[in-house]
Design goal:
single chain, 124 residues, mainly beta, Thrombin, subunit H, globular
C-alpha cells in the first residue's frame, strides 16, 4: 500500500483550514437544533478537476468546487450530522461528496462547494 504521509507533511502542498462539524438533533416537538464543533486541520486543497466535477449534481457544478485531501475523515452528512463545512481563504465550502480512503491509504478526499453568497470576481 502506498504511504501518503510525506505528501501531507510537504510545506509547499499543505494548508491550514477550518472545519465545522455540525450535529443535528430533533427534540420531542420536532424542532431541529444544530450545534457546531469548530476545529483546525491541515491538508491539501486544490481546485476540483473536470473529472471530479462530473461526480457532483449538476447544480453544484456552477459553484466554486475544491478537492480537500485530509487525513481526518470528513462527512457529506448522516442522520446525526449535517455536511461538514470547510473554511479556507476566507470562503466557506460545504462537503458534497466524500471518498474515505483513511483505512487503506491514510487520507480522505472530499469535494466541497462554495456556499458564500458572493461570486467570483470577474476581470473586465
Amino acid at each position: 500500500m502506498m504511504d501518503f504521509t510525506d505528501i501531507f507533511d510537504d510545506p509547499e502542498l499543505r494548508t491550514v483550514f477550518g472545519l465545522s462539524r455540525i450535529t443535528v438533533t430533533v427534540d420531542d416537538t420536532g424542532r431541529t437544533s444544530r450545534a457546531a464543533a469548530e476545529s483546525t486541520l491541515t491538508g491539501i486543497i486544490l481546485p476540483a478537476t473536470d473529472r471530479e466535477l462530473e461526480r457532483l449534481a449538476e447544480g453544484d457544478r456552477s459553484s466554486e468546487v475544491v478537492a480537500v485531501y485530509s487525513q481526518t475523515p470528513l462527512t457529506s452528512g448522516t442522520d446525526e450530522l449535517a455536511p461538514d463545512e470547510i473554511t479556507w481563504r476566507e470562503r466557506t465550502y460545504r462537503v458534497r461528496q466524500v471518498q474515505d480512503w483513511t483505512t487503506p491509504a491514510g487520507y480522505c478526499l472530499a469535494l466541497a462547494v462554495s456556499i458564500d453568497l458572493h461570486g467570483r470576481e470577474v476581470e473586465a
